[in-house]
Amino acid sequence: MRILVFNAGSSSLKFGVYDIPRGGGLVQMQQCFKGSFDRFGAGGCDYRAGLDEGTVTRAPYTDLASATQAVPDMLARAGITGIEAVGHRIAHGGAEFTAATALSAEVLEKIHALTPLAPLHNPANLKAVEIARDVWPDLPQWAVFDTSFHLTNPARAVTYAVPQHWRDAGLRRFGFHGTSHKYVAQRAAEALGRELRDLRLISLHLGNGASACAVALGESIDSSMGMTPLEGLVMGTRSGDVDPGLFGYLSRQMGLGITEIEDALYRDSGLKGLTGSSDMRDVEDRAAAGDADAQLAINIYAYRARKYIGAYAAAMGGLDALIFTGGIGENSPSMRRRICDGLEFMGLKLDHDRNMAVELGAHAAPQIQAYGTRVNVLVTETAEQLMIAREVAQAIRTPQGEALRIPIAVSARHVHLSQCAVDALFGPGYELTPDKPLRQKGHWAARERVVLHGPKGEIANVAILGPLRDRTQVEISRTDGFALGIDAPVRQSGALDGTPHIRLIGPAGQYDTNGLIIAARHIHMNSADAQQIGLSDGDTVNVTLTTSGRGLTFGGVLIRVTDNAFTEMHIDTDEANAAGISGAVEGELSGEAVLRST
Ligand SMILES: Nc1ncnc2c1ncn2[C@@H]1O[C@H](COP(=O)(O)OP(=O)(O)O)[C@@H](O)[C@H]1O
Ligand SMILES: CC(=O)OP(=O)(O)O
Ligand SMILES: [Mg+2]
């Protein structure tokens, strides 16, 4: 499979072509061509092409759009043919897009609607989509969003303390550069020989746009950009954090309009506002030559980044490694040094020689901390394009391309009764009263309730689900098992041989029975959905819950296919609590799981 990737940033356009050999996995993915344009100006831009990074030439393009327009010809001249899909970086995907998404007309519409929240980025990203669709109208186009990785951030990190009706209108923090933060976090874990799920990391992506991200135990838990890519660190042309009180002052005292203020914060602030140049190379050169403005800019830049390191170490309750990436993070030893200076108190100190000697190749993620210090410090190239290609390839390999989203129902403790049990509990020949229909057709919850009685305690008011069954089955959670004092096994529904005994108590008597289980998590799936996604009865899959506060993947979820099932996943209350679920949630069958089962 051959995938072309466009990564349009605020100051540069990068593109790459990636191959996965037939029958190979994502790890075998190889880059076969790449190019980048930056330093756009009236006289053109810098251009690097081919796998050999070194050569910089001048190209006549004065802006990102004209450079993007030139890419198809460049690929043709380089003999690159046979592209099967195009992946695009899209900066803002809002709260909806948790993974690579096929660019349908509807999805494009949603991305357009988010443009006011990323005015430097989404238009450039969409331009690349438009050009690619013109040139390759038959190829599938995919989006990979900067925001997706951060959708695991907890509510306390993403909620602005503003009036309720503003929050209801969608005001919240998102975070960007997620593809980069995710990639470098994985690289750092590999380089340290540790599992990502055991590490607390801070990633500093310092490019033209810049952001810090706290990655705790494999998930982004906070990042410095907010609802827009304006919040946080000092950037090339963006201010980063300012007092929102500035707006009123600028408007009332200085007579500026909203557009002027916003434009200045996006385009004329940051390094550019402080020094006249948005390019750190220029700023460093000027500072070295004695320019006081440039020196102050560098100090502000480093100080702001250092403050975020302190904040995120506190947010995570510790720090195992700090990662530098992005044009500045990768290439400026002096900036890395300034950012880290003064952090010895938290076990973070650089080794001068290692910091100066950093050489980044495709497989290197050098460590630059002083020997014997507690916090590892790594420098690594980011690889947003590679990550985008991987995510697109994985999504394409998932049957139907898109992950199947399934509603999740939380089963509280309940019993299924036999006629024998009903007779004993409610009186001979008693008929239960169906009260509420369940989503599985023909199933209902009865008005009647029973008590569960165990050696340690009782649980009252337990629901009875109909219709009646041949054998009585009692489904509880592990926590209920402690309350009752009985250790119940995890079983599929109906697999009751050898299960423990429990006493049920009803208004007319008691009933002792085996059949006490913790229901194995499962998905009811109708035949059409199963066929569409390539699953059969008895398969097991992984289901990822990214929308919940504690985002979690459930492994070994059993698929139960019946003709007219309502497709829905059932978990118990312990599982729901572990995933931080309240209210309606959807889970996502992860591509990996689907691949394994077919
Ligand atoms: N050798 C270097 N020293 C200092 N800064 C550098 C160096 N090389 C690149 N940079 C800076 O990196 C920034 C661009 O980062 P990059 O990640 O390429 O941008 P983008 O966010 O557009 O992808 C610019 O400020 C540039 O000056
Ligand atoms: C979101 C963002 O700031 O991206 P970039 O670094 O490409 O400007
Ligand atoms: Mg960038």
Automatic annotation (TrEMBL):
Which is a Gene Ontology cellular component entry for this protein? cytoplasm
Alphabetized InterPro entries for the sequence: Ac/propionate_kinase, Aliphatic_acid_kin_short-chain, Aliphatic_acid_kinase_CS, ATPase_NBD, PTAC
Q: Which UniProt keywords apply?
A: ATP-binding, Cytoplasm, Kinase, Magnesium, Metal-binding, Nucleotide-binding, Transferase
Name the residues that bind ATP.
Answer: K14, H205, L206, G207, N208, G209, D279, M280, R281, G327, I328, G329, E330, N331
Active site residues according to the UniProt entry? D146
Annotated site (Transition state stabilizer), which positions? Answer: H177, R238
Keyword match Cell cycle? no
A biological process from GO: 1,2-propanediol catabolic process
GO molecular function terms listed in the Swiss-Prot or TrEMBL record: acetate kinase activity; acyltransferase activity, transferring groups other than amino-acyl groups; ATP binding; magnesium ion binding
EC no.? 2.7.2.1
Role played = Catalyzes the formation of acetyl phosphate from acetate and ATP. Can also catalyze the reverse reaction.
Family note: Belongs to the acetokinase family.
Q: What is this protein called?
A: Acetate kinase
* Organism encoding this protein: Roseinatronobacter monicus
